[in-house]
UniProtKB/TrEMBL annotation:
GO terms for molecular function: ATP binding; corrinoid adenosyltransferase activity. GO terms for biological process: cobalamin biosynthetic process. Pathway: Cofactor biosynthesis; adenosylcobalamin biosynthesis; adenosylcobalamin from cob(II)yrinate a,c-diamide: step 2/7. The keyword Transferase applies. It is found in: Cytoplasm. One of its GO terms (cellular component) is cytoplasm. SUPFAM superfamilies: Cobalamin adenosyltransferase-like (SSF89028). InterPro entries: CblAdoTrfase-like, CblAdoTrfase-like_sf, PduO-typ. Belongs to the Cob(I)alamin adenosyltransferase family. Its main location: cytoplasm. Keywords: ATP-binding, Cobalamin biosynthesis, Cytoplasm, Nucleotide-binding, Transferase. This is Corrinoid adenosyltransferase. It comes from Pseudotabrizicola alkalilacus.
Length: 190
């Protein structure tokens, strides 16, 4: 259980922070950048929810919670040493990825196939979902880079990859099932 009775601790004043396993690392470490960017993705989801209603809001609420799970996963390194911890770390699992895939498939069935790339825009929600997508892709790149140096849960990478696709499709749904998509016109302003 998390108890936050004091918000500032001053333990990070020297430029370090604690990971989930208690290890202290530089705040600029790749691991901290990776889960920090997952947190940033979650903040953009919160903004998107301001424009969402009903089904979309519920889906974004689930994703927001998943992103906290993902941050918890990434802040606890050394997956092969989980047994040495006094608690079981939270790890992303396949069913979280599968749920995204199922939602993408249901929504994508409503959409006309694209014949052009689309630009961020249309409705306020669609524009915000495209921002979610781009921040999510940045988080994915950082997690993949981290995985070249340290062990990373493969489901974490899959989740971010699928989530950015989910945001893309959700953006089209938010644009009147793609009818209000803003299409890219190559060379339009030449």
């Amino acid at each position: 259980m998390v108890v936050l009775s004091k918000i500032y601790t001053k333990t990070g004043d020297g430029g370090e922070t604690a990971l989930g396993n208690g290890a202290r690392v530089a705040k600029h470490s790749l691991r901290v950048s990776a889960y920090g960017t997952v947190d940033e993705t979650n903040a953009t989801v919160g903004l998107a929810r301001l424009h969402a209603s009903a089904e979309m809001d519920a889906a974004l609420a689930r994703i927001s919670n998943d992103l906290f799970d993902l941050g918890a996963d990434l802040c606890t390194p050394d997956m092969h040493k989980d047994k040495d911890l006094t608690y079981t770390p939270l790890r992303m699992i396949d069913s979280q990825v599968t749920r995204l895939e199922q939602e993408i498939d249901v929504w994508n069935a409503r959409l006309t196939p694209l014949r052009s790339f689309i630009l961020p825009g249309g409705t306020a929600l669609a524009a915000q979902l495209h921002l979610c997508r781009t921040v999510c892709r940045r988080a994915e790149r950082l997690v993949v880079e981290l995985g070249t140096l340290e062990e990373v849960n493969a489901e974490a990478v899959k989740y971010l990859n699928r989530l950015s696709d989910w945001f893309f499709v959700a953006g089209r749904i938010a644009n009147d099932d793609g009818r209000a998509d803003v299409l890219w016109v190559p060379g339009l302003t030449r």
